[in-house]
Design a protein that fits this description.
mainly alpha; two-stranded antiparallel ribbon; 72% helix
Amino acid sequence: MPLRNPLNQKTMLSLLERTILFCIVAIPFFLAIAPAPTNIFMGALIAAFIAKKIIKKEKPYLQDGVTLPLFLYFLTVCLSLFNSVDYYDTIKGGVLRLLQYMLVFCAVAQEVKGLRQARRVVFAMAIGIALASMDAVWQVVHGRDFIRQYAPVVNLGLVRATASFKDANLLGIYLSGFFPLVAGLAIYHKKSSIRAVYILCSLLGLTGIFLTYSRPTYLALYAAILFMAVIMRHKTLLALLVAAAVALPILAPRPVRDWAKQMEYNPLRMMCNDDRIAAYRHSLNMIKAHPFLGVGANTFMKNYKRYKEFPEYRNVVTIDHMYAHNNFLHMAAEVGLVGFSFFAWFLFLLFKKGASRYRKTVDPYQKLLLAASIACLIAFLVNGLTESSLFYSRVAVIFWYCAGFMLAIGRMGEVEDAAI
Protein backbone atom coordinates (compact mmCIF):
# COMPACT_ATOMS: atom_id res chain seq x y z
CA MET A 1 0.00 0.00 0.00
CA PRO A 2 1.33 3.50 -0.92
CA LEU A 3 0.50 4.95 2.52
CA ARG A 4 2.92 2.52 4.21
CA ASN A 5 5.71 4.68 2.87
CA PRO A 6 6.31 7.32 5.58
CA LEU A 7 6.96 9.98 2.96
CA ASN A 8 3.69 9.28 1.14
CA GLN A 9 1.81 9.22 4.43
CA LYS A 10 3.33 12.55 5.48
CA THR A 11 2.41 14.09 2.11
CA MET A 12 -1.14 12.76 2.36
CA LEU A 13 -1.57 14.09 5.90
CA SER A 14 -0.26 17.50 4.83
CA LEU A 15 -2.75 17.58 1.95
CA LEU A 16 -5.61 16.54 4.22
CA GLU A 17 -4.72 19.19 6.81
CA ARG A 18 -4.63 21.88 4.13
CA THR A 19 -8.01 20.69 2.81
CA ILE A 20 -9.49 20.69 6.30
CA LEU A 21 -8.32 24.21 7.08
CA PHE A 22 -9.46 25.53 3.70
CA CYS A 23 -12.94 24.06 4.22
CA ILE A 24 -13.16 25.41 7.77
CA VAL A 25 -12.32 28.89 6.50
CA ALA A 26 -14.66 28.58 3.49
CA ILE A 27 -17.83 27.54 5.37
CA PRO A 28 -18.68 30.85 7.14
CA PHE A 29 -18.03 32.80 3.94
CA PHE A 30 -20.08 30.60 1.60
CA LEU A 31 -22.96 30.52 4.08
CA ALA A 32 -23.55 34.10 2.92
CA ILE A 33 -23.97 32.95 -0.69
CA ALA A 34 -25.95 29.71 -0.97
CA PRO A 35 -26.49 26.33 0.73
CA ALA A 36 -25.01 24.25 -2.12
CA PRO A 37 -21.35 25.38 -1.83
CA THR A 38 -21.65 25.32 1.97
CA ASN A 39 -22.78 21.69 1.87
CA ILE A 40 -19.96 20.82 -0.53
CA PHE A 41 -17.35 22.29 1.81
CA MET A 42 -18.98 20.60 4.81
CA GLY A 43 -18.82 17.27 3.01
CA ALA A 44 -15.21 17.80 1.99
CA LEU A 45 -14.31 18.83 5.55
CA ILE A 46 -15.88 15.70 7.02
CA ALA A 47 -14.29 13.39 4.42
CA ALA A 48 -10.80 14.88 4.92
CA PHE A 49 -11.19 14.89 8.71
CA ILE A 50 -12.21 11.22 8.85
CA ALA A 51 -9.48 10.23 6.38
CA LYS A 52 -6.87 11.96 8.54
CA LYS A 53 -8.13 10.23 11.67
CA ILE A 54 -8.02 6.83 9.93
CA ILE A 55 -4.45 7.35 8.71
CA LYS A 56 -3.26 8.55 12.12
CA LYS A 57 -5.38 5.91 13.91
CA GLU A 58 -6.98 8.56 16.10
CA LYS A 59 -10.50 8.84 17.46
CA PRO A 60 -12.58 11.51 15.67
CA TYR A 61 -14.56 12.60 18.70
CA LEU A 62 -13.45 14.98 21.44
CA GLN A 63 -12.05 13.29 24.51
CA ASP A 64 -13.46 15.66 27.10
CA GLY A 65 -16.61 16.22 29.12
CA VAL A 66 -18.87 17.48 26.32
CA THR A 67 -18.70 14.20 24.39
CA LEU A 68 -20.91 12.09 26.68
CA PRO A 69 -24.05 14.30 26.67
CA LEU A 70 -23.63 14.90 22.94
CA PHE A 71 -23.46 11.15 22.30
CA LEU A 72 -26.52 10.55 24.50
CA TYR A 73 -28.40 13.28 22.64
CA PHE A 74 -27.49 11.64 19.33
CA LEU A 75 -28.62 8.27 20.70
CA THR A 76 -31.98 9.78 21.71
CA VAL A 77 -32.41 11.24 18.22
CA CYS A 78 -31.87 7.72 16.86
CA LEU A 79 -34.37 6.22 19.30
CA SER A 80 -37.00 8.81 18.37
CA LEU A 81 -37.34 6.81 15.16
CA PHE A 82 -39.73 4.49 17.04
CA ASN A 83 -42.33 7.30 17.28
CA SER A 84 -41.69 8.77 13.84
CA VAL A 85 -44.43 9.09 11.24
CA ASP A 86 -41.78 9.17 8.51
CA TYR A 87 -38.72 6.94 8.98
CA TYR A 88 -36.96 8.36 5.92
CA ASP A 89 -37.23 11.96 7.14
CA THR A 90 -36.09 11.03 10.63
CA ILE A 91 -33.06 9.11 9.37
CA LYS A 92 -32.02 11.59 6.67
CA GLY A 93 -32.99 14.95 8.18
CA GLY A 94 -32.67 13.94 11.82
CA VAL A 95 -30.03 11.28 12.48
CA LEU A 96 -27.70 11.82 9.53
CA ARG A 97 -27.95 15.60 9.59
CA LEU A 98 -27.11 15.70 13.30
CA LEU A 99 -24.18 13.35 12.65
CA GLN A 100 -22.98 15.76 9.97
CA TYR A 101 -23.16 18.71 12.37
CA MET A 102 -21.40 16.75 15.11
CA LEU A 103 -18.52 15.90 12.76
CA VAL A 104 -18.22 19.57 11.72
CA PHE A 105 -18.19 20.47 15.42
CA CYS A 106 -15.43 17.94 16.15
CA ALA A 107 -13.40 18.93 13.08
CA VAL A 108 -13.45 22.65 13.89
CA ALA A 109 -12.68 21.99 17.57
CA GLN A 110 -9.67 19.81 16.77
CA GLU A 111 -8.26 21.28 13.57
CA VAL A 112 -8.08 25.03 14.32
CA LYS A 113 -4.78 24.76 16.12
CA GLY A 114 -3.29 28.23 16.41
CA LEU A 115 -4.14 31.90 16.57
CA ARG A 116 -2.97 32.36 12.98
CA GLN A 117 -5.57 29.86 11.77
CA ALA A 118 -8.17 31.39 14.08
CA ARG A 119 -7.55 34.81 12.53
CA ARG A 120 -8.22 33.35 9.07
CA VAL A 121 -11.52 31.94 10.29
CA VAL A 122 -12.66 35.26 11.78
CA PHE A 123 -11.56 37.12 8.65
CA ALA A 124 -13.71 34.77 6.55
CA MET A 125 -16.63 35.55 8.87
CA ALA A 126 -16.01 39.27 8.44
CA ILE A 127 -15.93 39.07 4.65
CA GLY A 128 -19.07 36.91 4.64
CA ILE A 129 -20.89 39.42 6.84
CA ALA A 130 -19.75 42.29 4.61
CA LEU A 131 -20.90 40.49 1.46
CA ALA A 132 -24.31 39.57 2.87
CA SER A 133 -24.85 43.09 4.22
CA MET A 134 -23.91 44.77 0.93
CA ASP A 135 -26.27 42.35 -0.80
CA ALA A 136 -29.00 43.37 1.67
CA VAL A 137 -28.50 47.07 0.93
CA TRP A 138 -28.53 46.39 -2.83
CA GLN A 139 -31.71 44.35 -2.44
CA VAL A 140 -33.57 47.10 -0.57
CA VAL A 141 -32.46 49.76 -3.05
CA HIS A 142 -32.92 47.82 -6.30
CA GLY A 143 -35.62 45.28 -5.37
CA ARG A 144 -33.47 42.17 -5.94
CA ASP A 145 -30.36 40.87 -4.26
CA PHE A 146 -27.35 40.54 -6.58
CA ILE A 147 -26.47 36.96 -5.57
CA ARG A 148 -29.69 34.97 -6.00
CA GLN A 149 -32.13 37.61 -7.27
CA TYR A 150 -34.42 37.33 -4.24
CA ALA A 151 -36.92 40.12 -3.60
CA PRO A 152 -37.15 41.71 -0.13
CA VAL A 153 -40.02 40.96 2.25
CA VAL A 154 -42.51 43.70 3.15
CA ASN A 155 -44.13 43.66 6.61
CA LEU A 156 -45.97 46.55 8.29
CA GLY A 157 -44.90 48.73 5.39
CA LEU A 158 -41.22 48.02 6.14
CA VAL A 159 -38.98 46.64 3.40
CA ARG A 160 -37.05 43.84 5.10
CA ALA A 161 -33.82 42.61 3.54
CA THR A 162 -33.22 38.89 3.08
CA ALA A 163 -30.08 39.09 0.86
CA SER A 164 -29.36 35.57 -0.46
CA PHE A 165 -31.54 33.99 2.24
CA LYS A 166 -35.21 33.18 1.79
CA ASP A 167 -36.30 35.03 4.91
CA ALA A 168 -35.20 38.17 6.74
CA ASN A 169 -34.95 36.29 10.03
CA LEU A 170 -32.56 33.78 8.45
CA LEU A 171 -30.32 36.62 7.34
CA GLY A 172 -30.49 37.98 10.89
CA ILE A 173 -29.49 34.60 12.34
CA TYR A 174 -26.47 34.43 10.03
CA LEU A 175 -25.29 37.98 10.67
CA SER A 176 -25.80 37.93 14.45
CA GLY A 177 -24.30 34.44 14.73
CA PHE A 178 -20.86 35.59 13.55
CA PHE A 179 -21.06 39.31 14.34
CA PRO A 180 -19.69 39.18 17.93
CA LEU A 181 -16.34 37.77 16.76
CA VAL A 182 -16.01 40.43 14.05
CA ALA A 183 -17.19 43.25 16.32
CA GLY A 184 -14.93 42.05 19.13
CA LEU A 185 -11.86 42.46 16.95
CA ALA A 186 -13.19 45.81 15.69
CA ILE A 187 -13.40 47.09 19.27
CA TYR A 188 -10.39 45.50 20.91
CA HIS A 189 -7.82 44.70 18.20
CA LYS A 190 -4.59 46.62 18.85
CA LYS A 191 -3.33 46.87 15.25
CA SER A 192 -5.03 49.92 13.71
CA SER A 193 -4.88 48.70 10.09
CA ILE A 194 -6.49 45.35 10.86
CA ARG A 195 -8.90 46.99 13.26
CA ALA A 196 -10.07 49.34 10.48
CA VAL A 197 -11.03 46.37 8.29
CA TYR A 198 -13.06 44.81 11.09
CA ILE A 199 -14.68 48.14 11.91
CA LEU A 200 -15.81 48.47 8.28
CA CYS A 201 -17.17 44.91 8.22
CA SER A 202 -18.89 45.51 11.57
CA LEU A 203 -20.58 48.68 10.33
CA LEU A 204 -21.77 46.84 7.24
CA GLY A 205 -22.98 44.01 9.47
CA LEU A 206 -24.94 46.42 11.66
CA THR A 207 -26.52 47.90 8.54
CA GLY A 208 -27.52 44.44 7.31
CA ILE A 209 -28.93 43.51 10.71
CA PHE A 210 -30.91 46.77 10.88
CA LEU A 211 -32.41 46.15 7.43
CA THR A 212 -33.77 42.75 8.50
CA TYR A 213 -36.10 44.46 11.02
CA SER A 214 -35.89 41.17 12.89
CA ARG A 215 -36.86 41.51 16.54
CA PRO A 216 -35.18 38.26 17.67
CA THR A 217 -32.00 39.30 15.86
CA TYR A 218 -32.01 42.70 17.55
CA LEU A 219 -32.46 41.01 20.94
CA ALA A 220 -29.76 38.43 20.17
CA LEU A 221 -27.30 41.11 19.10
CA TYR A 222 -28.06 43.20 22.18
CA ALA A 223 -27.54 40.21 24.50
CA ALA A 224 -24.26 39.25 22.81
CA ILE A 225 -22.80 42.76 22.89
CA LEU A 226 -24.00 43.24 26.48
CA PHE A 227 -22.15 40.06 27.45
CA MET A 228 -19.01 41.31 25.69
CA ALA A 229 -19.25 44.70 27.38
CA VAL A 230 -19.65 43.17 30.84
CA ILE A 231 -16.96 40.52 30.53
CA MET A 232 -14.46 42.95 28.93
CA ARG A 233 -15.48 45.72 31.39
CA HIS A 234 -16.11 48.26 28.64
CA LYS A 235 -17.99 51.08 30.41
CA THR A 236 -18.51 53.20 27.30
CA LEU A 237 -20.12 50.32 25.44
CA LEU A 238 -22.33 49.58 28.44
CA ALA A 239 -23.49 53.20 28.48
CA LEU A 240 -24.27 53.06 24.77
CA LEU A 241 -26.30 49.87 25.25
CA VAL A 242 -28.34 51.48 28.02
CA ALA A 243 -28.90 54.57 25.86
CA ALA A 244 -29.99 52.38 22.94
CA ALA A 245 -32.54 50.57 25.12
CA VAL A 246 -33.98 53.90 26.26
CA ALA A 247 -34.02 55.45 22.77
CA LEU A 248 -35.48 52.46 20.94
CA PRO A 249 -39.17 53.11 21.76
CA ILE A 250 -38.74 56.74 20.72
CA LEU A 251 -36.81 56.16 17.48
CA ALA A 252 -38.85 53.18 16.28
CA PRO A 253 -40.63 53.80 12.91
CA ARG A 254 -44.27 54.91 13.12
CA PRO A 255 -45.66 51.59 11.74
CA VAL A 256 -43.77 49.75 14.48
CA ARG A 257 -45.15 52.04 17.21
CA ASP A 258 -48.68 51.59 15.88
CA TRP A 259 -48.20 47.82 15.78
CA ALA A 260 -46.90 47.83 19.38
CA LYS A 261 -50.05 49.64 20.45
CA GLN A 262 -52.17 46.97 18.74
CA MET A 263 -50.21 44.35 20.71
CA GLU A 264 -51.25 46.22 23.88
CA TYR A 265 -47.53 46.73 24.61
CA ASN A 266 -47.39 43.12 25.78
CA PRO A 267 -43.68 42.17 25.55
CA LEU A 268 -44.42 38.49 24.86
CA ARG A 269 -46.85 39.26 22.04
CA MET A 270 -44.54 41.95 20.66
CA MET A 271 -41.56 39.61 20.54
CA CYS A 272 -43.32 36.43 19.44
CA ASN A 273 -46.54 37.44 17.64
CA ASP A 274 -49.79 35.61 18.31
CA ASP A 275 -49.11 32.94 15.69
CA ARG A 276 -45.85 31.96 17.38
CA ILE A 277 -47.57 31.79 20.78
CA ALA A 278 -50.15 29.50 19.19
CA ALA A 279 -47.33 27.33 17.83
CA TYR A 280 -45.81 27.16 21.32
CA ARG A 281 -49.08 25.86 22.72
CA HIS A 282 -49.31 23.22 20.00
CA SER A 283 -45.69 22.24 20.70
CA LEU A 284 -46.59 21.66 24.36
CA ASN A 285 -49.38 19.37 23.20
CA MET A 286 -46.81 17.28 21.31
CA ILE A 287 -44.57 17.13 24.38
CA LYS A 288 -47.48 16.07 26.61
CA ALA A 289 -48.41 13.30 24.18
CA HIS A 290 -44.82 12.01 23.78
CA PRO A 291 -42.79 13.26 26.75
CA PHE A 292 -39.92 10.77 26.58
CA LEU A 293 -38.82 10.24 22.94
CA GLY A 294 -40.93 12.86 21.19
CA VAL A 295 -42.77 12.53 17.89
CA GLY A 296 -39.60 11.72 15.93
CA ALA A 297 -36.64 13.78 14.76
CA ASN A 298 -37.32 16.02 11.75
CA THR A 299 -41.07 15.35 11.82
CA PHE A 300 -42.34 18.38 13.77
CA MET A 301 -43.95 19.95 10.72
CA LYS A 302 -45.61 16.69 9.68
CA ASN A 303 -47.10 16.26 13.16
CA TYR A 304 -48.05 19.89 13.74
CA LYS A 305 -51.60 19.66 12.39
CA ARG A 306 -52.44 16.68 14.61
CA TYR A 307 -51.71 18.62 17.80
CA LYS A 308 -53.36 21.95 17.00
CA GLU A 309 -55.98 23.19 19.43
CA PHE A 310 -59.20 24.78 18.18
CA PRO A 311 -59.85 27.62 18.41
CA GLU A 312 -56.21 28.62 18.37
CA TYR A 313 -54.68 31.28 20.60
CA ARG A 314 -56.56 34.59 20.24
CA ASN A 315 -58.35 33.06 17.23
CA VAL A 316 -55.29 33.18 14.98
CA VAL A 317 -55.07 30.61 12.19
CA THR A 318 -51.67 28.96 11.72
CA ILE A 319 -50.74 26.88 8.71
CA ASP A 320 -50.85 23.09 9.03
CA HIS A 321 -47.10 22.61 8.50
CA MET A 322 -45.13 24.93 10.73
CA TYR A 323 -41.94 25.11 12.81
CA ALA A 324 -42.20 25.60 16.58
CA HIS A 325 -40.28 28.91 16.27
CA ASN A 326 -38.45 28.02 19.46
CA ASN A 327 -35.40 25.76 19.46
CA PHE A 328 -36.10 24.20 22.82
CA LEU A 329 -39.80 23.50 22.32
CA HIS A 330 -39.04 22.17 18.83
CA MET A 331 -36.36 19.86 20.22
CA ALA A 332 -38.45 18.63 23.14
CA ALA A 333 -41.37 17.93 20.78
CA GLU A 334 -39.22 15.93 18.34
CA VAL A 335 -36.91 13.98 20.67
CA GLY A 336 -38.71 14.29 23.99
CA LEU A 337 -37.67 15.68 27.34
CA VAL A 338 -34.95 13.02 27.53
CA GLY A 339 -33.23 14.29 24.39
CA PHE A 340 -33.75 17.90 25.44
CA SER A 341 -32.16 17.18 28.84
CA PHE A 342 -29.07 15.69 27.21
CA PHE A 343 -28.75 18.72 24.92
CA ALA A 344 -29.18 21.09 27.89
CA TRP A 345 -26.43 19.14 29.67
CA PHE A 346 -24.22 19.53 26.61
CA LEU A 347 -24.86 23.31 26.57
CA PHE A 348 -24.09 23.60 30.28
CA LEU A 349 -20.75 21.81 29.90
CA LEU A 350 -19.95 23.78 26.75
CA PHE A 351 -20.37 27.15 28.48
CA LYS A 352 -18.69 25.86 31.64
CA LYS A 353 -15.64 24.82 29.64
CA GLY A 354 -15.58 28.15 27.80
CA ALA A 355 -15.80 30.11 31.06
CA SER A 356 -13.08 27.97 32.64
CA ARG A 357 -10.67 28.51 29.77
CA TYR A 358 -11.44 32.24 29.73
CA ARG A 359 -10.48 32.57 33.39
CA LYS A 360 -7.23 30.61 32.89
CA THR A 361 -6.15 32.22 29.61
CA VAL A 362 -3.49 34.91 29.88
CA ASP A 363 -3.00 35.91 26.24
CA PRO A 364 -5.30 38.92 25.61
CA TYR A 365 -5.98 38.04 21.97
CA GLN A 366 -6.94 34.48 22.83
CA LYS A 367 -9.05 35.77 25.71
CA LEU A 368 -10.89 38.09 23.30
CA LEU A 369 -11.58 35.28 20.84
CA LEU A 370 -12.93 33.10 23.64
CA ALA A 371 -15.27 35.82 24.91
CA ALA A 372 -16.48 36.63 21.39
CA SER A 373 -17.03 32.93 20.60
CA ILE A 374 -19.19 32.57 23.69
CA ALA A 375 -21.08 35.71 22.61
CA CYS A 376 -21.73 34.10 19.21
CA LEU A 377 -23.33 31.12 20.93
CA ILE A 378 -25.38 33.44 23.11
CA ALA A 379 -26.61 35.34 20.04
CA PHE A 380 -27.61 32.12 18.28
CA LEU A 381 -29.43 30.72 21.31
CA VAL A 382 -31.24 33.99 22.08
CA ASN A 383 -32.34 34.13 18.44
CA GLY A 384 -33.56 30.57 18.93
CA LEU A 385 -36.08 31.68 21.55
CA THR A 386 -38.38 32.76 18.71
CA GLU A 387 -36.91 30.75 15.82
CA SER A 388 -36.18 27.05 15.26
CA SER A 389 -32.71 28.00 14.07
CA LEU A 390 -31.15 24.69 15.15
CA PHE A 391 -33.49 23.01 12.69
CA TYR A 392 -33.16 25.37 9.72
CA SER A 393 -30.78 23.59 7.35
CA ARG A 394 -29.42 26.89 5.99
CA VAL A 395 -28.14 28.24 9.31
CA ALA A 396 -28.10 25.37 11.86
CA VAL A 397 -24.42 24.68 11.23
CA ILE A 398 -23.56 28.13 12.66
CA PHE A 399 -24.19 26.87 16.19
CA TRP A 400 -22.05 23.76 15.80
CA TYR A 401 -19.32 25.70 14.01
CA CYS A 402 -19.11 28.40 16.70
CA ALA A 403 -19.22 25.79 19.47
CA GLY A 404 -16.30 23.96 17.86
CA PHE A 405 -14.42 27.22 17.33
CA MET A 406 -14.84 28.18 20.97
CA LEU A 407 -13.43 24.83 22.10
CA ALA A 408 -10.58 25.16 19.60
CA ILE A 409 -9.56 28.51 21.11
CA GLY A 410 -9.78 27.02 24.59
CA ARG A 411 -7.72 23.98 23.57
CA MET A 412 -4.89 26.29 22.51
CA GLY A 413 -4.58 27.29 26.15
CA GLU A 414 -4.69 23.64 27.26
CA VAL A 415 -1.83 22.80 24.91
CA GLU A 416 0.22 25.67 26.32
CA ASP A 417 -0.52 24.51 29.91
CA ALA A 418 0.57 20.98 29.05
CA ALA A 419 3.78 22.28 27.49
CA ILE A 420 4.60 24.26 30.62
